[in-house]
Amino acid sequence: MKKTILFSVSLLTTLVSCNLDETVYYDNVPQVKIFTSSNTSGKISYTNLLANNAATFSLSVNGTDNDGIFYDNDADEVIVASRTNNRLERYSGLKNSVSSNVDNLTLDNFSSNTDFTNPREIAVTGDKIIVTQDQAASNGNTNKLFVYQKTNSGFTLLNQYTVDFKLWGIHVNGNDLYAIADLTSDLVVFTNFFSLPSGSITPTKRVTIEGLTRTHGITFSNQDNVMILTDVADAASDSDGGVVIINNFTNVLNSTSNMGTIAMNNQIRIYGSETMLGNPVDVAYDYVTNRIFVAERANGGGKVLAFVYPTVSGNLAPISSRTELGVAGIYLVRK
Questions:
Q1: For residue 262, what pLDDT is reported?
Q2: Cα–Cα distance between 328 and 116 in angstroms, integer?
Q3: Rounded CA gap, 318 and 322, in Å?
Q4: The sheet that has 320-323: what strands, in order across it?
Q5: What H or E segment, with its residue span, contains residue 121?
Q6: How far is 108 from 128, CA to CA, in rounded Å?
Q7: d(Cα 208, Cα 210) in Å, to the nearest integer?
Q8: pLDDT score recorded for residue 28
Q9: I need a surface site. Which of 118, 179, 230, 247 has the fewest CB within 10 A?
């Protein structure tokens, strides 16, 4: 296994590769960890941004096509939505794999049943895991949300919901669920989501993001009250994507009527030739350093990009870029 220098503490843009000859995982120091999945490589990546040289580790998982990803720091386990196997999968022993220079994770006997096909994002809160199913011939062109409970013995399906729009990114905020409506410029909200009985459900509110072509990635910072969305625009283009930031989000959302529009004057926008954004499919945000991390699927076959948090819209170049072939999901955890 190789290590690739991606970020120093100050997020320098220099990229260096060398043999792994030191342990860069430290159990009792502050850590900001980035995890990515890939839909082509059969790998996930792990980067501790606060470690010396911030090495990126590439670790093998079961199946080449994975999307949504989550890391439980206390349990030291990675959960992915496998599109190869159409199930949730849990992998343990990341710390040991990194410190021992082992190029794989242990797939636990802890996977869900194959209740869904063509999964996309996952969102986790407590012991609840939500999976989005995007319509495909394999599932009768049905868009659904699945809610699982993680127990000591596996993932138990609690509820499943059918919706009338294509699904991709989701984010849980308390008892509410934010979701994007793929192929549109819309964001939807399900209030008190976990209290809904299984069946067909309708969003509490749906709003359009002015100037955004096709939403995909989504993350929300409750600490900063900031919503961040990605725009893949034309999926065939590797240069027309963007990132939309909405400050004071809950107030902006509350003041926007159902089926209304969040205007561009309520947005900060990262678009243009310098951004390296073509198909930004997922996004993560660190509210302490105010860094935005993007899983860019199209440009160069896949890249992980980092941006400073902008104060005004513009053609903003990333402060760091790393090749990550087939990158599909990105998750950040701060310890």
A1: 98
A2: 18
A3: 10
A4: 280-286, 291-296, 303-308, 320-323
A5: strand 119-125
A6: 18
A7: 6
A8: 62
A9: 247
